[in-house]
Structure formats: C-alpha cells, structure tokens
Amino acid sequence: MAIQVDFSDIFKQLKTGVVGLAKSTVSQYVNDAKTDAQNLLAEMKDDLERWTKLLISGDLTTQDFEWLVNSEKDSFKMAALEQAGLALIRVDQFKSSVLNFIVDTVFKMVKV
After folding, report:
1. How far apart are the first and last CA of the chain?
2. pLDDT digit string, tens, across residues 11-34
3. Where exactly are the structural domains of the chain?
4. 90: burial class by Cβ within 10 Å (0-12, 13-18, 19+)?
5. Alpha-carbon gap, residue 100 to 82, rounded angstroms
6. Cβ contact 25:81 at 8 Å
7. pTM of the predicted protein model
8. Which of 17, 18, 69, 93 could form a cystine bridge with 37, CB 3.0-4.6 A?
C-alpha cells in the first residue's frame, strides 16, 4: 500500500516552518533570514518534490535523501543575511538549520 502525501502540504509546512526557525535562531535579522530561507525553498522546490516522491516510493533511502538535500548547501547564498552584516559563520549555521529542518519535516510528513 503506497503512502499518499501531497507535496504542496509539505511545501506549505516548510515555508511556514522556516519563518519560525528564523525567529528562533537569528531574531535580529528575521526578515532577511525569512527572505533567504524562502528563496532557498523556492529554488529547491522541484528537486525536493522529486526526491520526496522517490523517498516515498522506496527508490531513495533516508540517507540518500538527506545527502541530496545537504549537498545543496554550497549552491545557495544567503544574500540578504550577508548583506545585512550577519557574521558568515552564523549565516552558514542558519543555512544548515534550514536544510536540517527540510529533512526533518519531510521525514515526519511522509512517516519514514
């Protein structure tokens, strides 16, 4: 019996969740963090949808999915946060938090 998951529900949850993540991790830069995180999600959307479907079908393991998501880390710049003057190490930590949040949210919603 195949799991039925609507990717649009997952994506809505991701978009909402990154706002909360921004508020809790870089509160003084919340608007910049929100912009960067939502841009990252928008750029990854097609890949995330494809990878999520492969995960659900069993064609990707959880380790493969996590590796694919985290392999995108160096592809994205957090331009708004960098321009706002947040230290690069904090920008990198926030980016890692966003990617981990993506993995955790997808796993939770597809129940793997």
Report:
1. 14
2. 999 999 999 999 999 989 999 999
3. 8-110
4. middle
5. 20
6. no
7. 0.90
8. 18
pLDDT of 104 reads 97
**Considering only CA atoms, which of 61, 54, 72 is closest in space to residue 3?**
54
Residue with tokens 């492969």: 54
And the tokens for 112? 């793997």
Q: What is the DSSP string of 16-80?
A: HHHHHHHHHHSGGGHHHHHHHHHHHHHHHHHHHHHHHHHHHHTSS-HHHHHHHHHTTGGG---HH
Token pair 């955790």: residue? 104
Average pLDDT in the chain: 92
* Lookup: tokens for 12: 């809505």
pLDDT in tens, 52-71: 999 999 999 999 999 999 99
pLDDT of residue 3: 60
